[in-house]
Amino acid sequence: MSNGQNGAELRLVTPGMAIGPVAGKRIGSGAIAQNDTIIATRLGWTKEFNNTVSVDPINSAYMPRSGDLIVAVVAEVRNNLWFMNINGPFQGLLPMSLAPWKVEFGAARQHMGIGDVVLARVQEVDECHNVVLTMKGVGLRRLNQGTIVNVPINHIDRLRGEGNATVQRLRDAADSRIIIGENGRVWIDGNAEGTAWAREAVALTQASGHKTTFEAELSALEQNAPKKGDA
Amino acid sequence: MGGYGDVQLLRDDGLRLDGRKIDEMRPMTIEAGVLPAADGSAMVTHGLNVAVAAVYGPMEAHPRKIQRQDRAVIDVRYNMAPFSTSDRIRPGYNRRSREISKVTAEALESVVLVERYPRSKIRVEIEILAAEAGTRCAGLTAAAVALADAGIPMRDLIVGVASGKVEGTVVLDLDKAEDNYGQADLPVGILPNTGEIAFLQMDGDLSPDEYNLAMEYNFKAAAEIHEIMVDALKRRYEGGEN
Question: Could you check whether A12-57 and A69-143 share the same CATH topology?
Answer without folding.
Answer: yes
